[in-house]
Specification:
By secondary structure, this protein is an all-alpha fold. It has eight helices and two strands; from the N terminus they run E-E-H-H-H-H-H-H-H-H. It has a two-stranded antiparallel sheet with strand order 1-2. A hairpin with a 2-residue loop joins strand 1 (about 5) and strand 2.
Length: about 160
């Protein structure tokens, strides 16, 4: 089904995690990891491996911290992609690059093509070799974008 990651509705997963973070007054990645897995189970997830997979977890965390998710009271932070890569990791960088492409309507139709575009931009802007396969970061960005959960740099 569209909008799902590991058979869990992604927007509900992200929103549930954010709500827990806000209620606890937390901003750290360790707390995010705990609440991410907890929310996954609450939404019907059954595999600890899927619910704690680092690539989508870190992509979603980076988008949240950088103010890219709507209605979170976190200001949009404009930051160079190499700095995002250093501060939040490559999965956050992949997600931001994917959002940039999607927002500029430069992304192609398939997720595989979008991933190739992200890889190319990553090489150019970060001067490092990206992962060979997309492990969730682009999926996170694409779903949240399509479900109108992303703040544009114009907002």
């Amino acid at each position: 089904m569209a909008g799902e990651l590991f058979y869990i509705p992604l927007t509900r997963w992200v929103r549930g995690t954010i709500e827990k973070m806000n209620n606890a007054g937390k901003r750290d990645v360790h707390s995010w990891s705990i609440y991410w897995l907890e929310t996954y189970y609450e939404l019907g997830g059954q595999s600890e491996e899927s619910g704690s997979k680092g690539c989508p977890l870190h992509a979603a965390y980076g988008l949240w911290c950088l103010g890219r998710i709507k209605e979170t009271n976190i200001p949009y932070q404009l930051m160079a992609i190499n700095h995002i890569n250093q501060e939040y990791g490559n999965n956050a960088a992949y997600a931001i690059l994917a959002l940039d492409l999607l927002g500029k309507k430069q992304a192609t139709e398939t997720k595989a093509d979008l991933w190739r575009q992200v890889q190319d931009l990553y090489r150019i802007r970060v001067h490092q070799e990206p992962a060979r396969s997309q492990q969730g970061a682009v999926t996170i960005a694409e779903i949240l974008f399509k479900e109108n959960q992303i703040v544009s740099d114009q907002e």
